[in-house]
Amino acid sequence: MLTGAGLSPFFWRVQPIGWLALGAIGFWIRSAAFANPTLALALTTTLDTLGFIGTSAAAVLHVRYAGGARRLYVLLAAVTACVMGAFLLGLLGTAIRDLFPMGASAIMPRSTFSLGFVYYLGVLCIWALAYYGFSAELDVRTERLSEAQARQKELEHLQRQVEPHLVLNTLHAIQAEIATRPARAQELAGQLADYLEYALDRHGNTLCSVQEEVAAVRNFVGIQTQRLGERFSCRYDVDAAALGKRLPHMTLPALVEHAVRQGQRAGDAPFHVQVQVWMRDSVLEIEVDNPGHLSGTFDPSRAGPVLDNLNQRLAQCYPERYSLTMEQQADRSVTRLSVHGEPSFV
Fold this sequence. Notes:
rod-shaped, Heat Shock Protein 90, transferase, 9 strands, two-stranded antiparallel sheet, alpha+beta, transmembrane
């Protein structure tokens, strides 16, 4: 019945169909009971239309205001609304009946407020039970779908975070260094092994400490230094208070990878990447800057698969509690990530 933004299209399809079916049945019963089709039509069109409007309004109010309320309060509000709605519809039905003559073959007494009250109380209670039943079922399905989507995003994350070119280029570099600089080849092989172990073998963990993330970045930078040579350098400024904070796996390497890609210069022009991590009260701040110029307004979804994937995972872990921005400062591009509090998705 519900979606993240409100009532689903399914509700608005079922709601009028249900009340039309109820109206058809009610018209037949009233025609037989009062022996006056005109009275039956007046009662059905007036009362069932109000019932449709009232239950639709109740559903909209439930979506808007009952999300964070306790279930007991919601239940009490639903019972109260059903009783009051049945009472008002019963009174209105009695007033309408007084305007019409009873048929000669009528089997109902003229004063039937109690019967109308009981009838609509039953209708409204059944509607409420059906609504909450479908809503609960849909909530379960939505939660399962969200979990499946989260697992899928994590799989995509693992598939994207280590490019084959990185591995192949590093292996070729190791091969070239073995004969002339075996110590450097051994160091490079160790960096690649450590980086791949961290990137791929997390045993289902989705959160890592800043200290682990910085270690992975150092291995990544070591590999890139071999490929780019002395023209590339990276400086770290990491607050010790931030080392124990947890982040989604491969957050910092993703930011640095994007910075290296964006900061590379043509030819042998040198370029420098700077990584800063610090705590501001309970907010973890990360800043990565590199040479480069923004082509327009920053949008993570259009900044390439690395930042797009990272932004989606951050939204899962820190809903409404993070910001990922990029701005131009002179001839350098600065990417900032701020996360508030602890991750809410593990």
